[in-house]
Write a structure and sequence with these properties.
The protein is mainly α.
Amino acid sequence: MPQLNPAPWFLILLLSWTVLLLIFKTKILMSAPHSAPLTPDLLAHRTAPWTWPWI
């Protein structure tokens, strides 16, 4: 059984991976949120320190 020359198959594999990565990159960037997430005000939620019940 003759062996296939790997040179054209490697180029096809490389180009197909490049195209797939570009497609997935654009899909990921399009699904990213457009606005920054809201950060909670950490000073407003300040609570008393927890105390040990046996002290």
